[in-house]
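Bumping my old thread because nobody answered last time. Still need a sequence for this structure:
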């Protein structure tokens, strides 16, 4: 056992706590951890346990004590490494999944139990996942990025049970799931030569970015004339603005000045009262005035 393995921080490799919903991602991280420490065979049982006990040689061991079976050095070393890897794996299980590992002796036993629970290789599960991939449709309230992640999650679930989706099939299923808004794009991409799945995802993301850019600029261009007209009206008729503070002009009437701090209604009322009082003091007209 090397010092690197003893001081290893498992959290740098496995960042997830295994749950029924994230098995494919957790599995990839666990495989990377085991492979980095050259312990992948303990997971897959490609490195099985060596013989546990020595075979006594009765011809060369005359006494019964010397002929008793003893554990081999190879098994002791293998067991130590296997228990270490088993501890790493169990340490990444959530409380919900920890019960599946109770009572299991080797790392491979734990690995197979988790696989059978969350990646069961059955025709029913494969059929369900393939149906979801085939009939998946993009929802209007989801972005193209969210739709791609949903599609990829279904494909990853199939790969986790040993039934990966072929690249050409991924391209066809993803294109047919986009809906009528992407009909022109879908028709173009389905023509030979078809892109690979990774190329298709990249082109979809670029298309979505361009659509958002044009949409934002179209909204801005539509709003600019209205804003310009509103600003022009504010300059021509400042008294109708929401920030109107009253009549700022100084008005002289009959030797009196109306202060600019008075509001428009106050000034109007004051002028009206002055006009009314003037009319009342005017003498009645005479016939000769007509």
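Sorry it took so long. Here it is:
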């Amino acid at each position: 056992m090397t010092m690197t393995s003893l001081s290893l921080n498992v959290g740098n490799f496995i960042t997830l706590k295994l749950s029924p919903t994230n098995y494919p991602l957790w599995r990839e991280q666990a495989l990377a951890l085991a492979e980095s420490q050259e312990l992948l065979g303990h997971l897959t049982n490609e490195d099985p346990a060596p013989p546990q006990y020595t075979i006594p040689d009765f011809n060369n061991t005359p006494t019964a004590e010397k002929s008793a079976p003893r554990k081999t050095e190879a098994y002791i070393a293998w067991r130590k490494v296997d228990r270490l890897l088993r501890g790493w794996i169990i340490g990444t299980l959530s409380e919900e999944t920890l019960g599946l590992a109770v009572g299991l002796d080797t790392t491979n036993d734990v690995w197979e139990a988790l696989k059978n629970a969350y990646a069961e290789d059955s025709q029913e599960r494969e059929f369900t996942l393939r149906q979801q991939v085939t009939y998946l449709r993009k929802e209007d309230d989801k972005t193209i990025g969210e739709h791609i992640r949903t599609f990829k999650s279904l494909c990853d679930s199939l790969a986790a049970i040993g039934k990966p989706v072929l690249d050409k099939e991924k391209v066809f299923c993803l294109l047919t799931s986009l809906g009528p808004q992407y009909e022109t794009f879908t028709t173009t991409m389905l023509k030979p030569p078809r892109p690979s799945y990774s190329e298709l995802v990249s082109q979809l993301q670029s298309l979505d970015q361009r659509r958002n850019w044009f949409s934002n600029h179209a909204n801005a261009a539509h709003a600019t004339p209205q804003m310009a007209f509103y600003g022009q009206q504010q300059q021509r008729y400042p008294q109708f603005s929401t920030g109107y503070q009253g009549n700022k002009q100084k008005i002289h009437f009959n030797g009196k000045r109306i202060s600019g701090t008075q509001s428009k209604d106050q000034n109007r009322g004051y002028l009206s009262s002055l006009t009314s009082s003037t009319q009342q003091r005017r003498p009645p007209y005479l016939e000769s005035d007509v």
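The two ends are 128 Å apart (CA to CA). Let me know if any region looks off to you.
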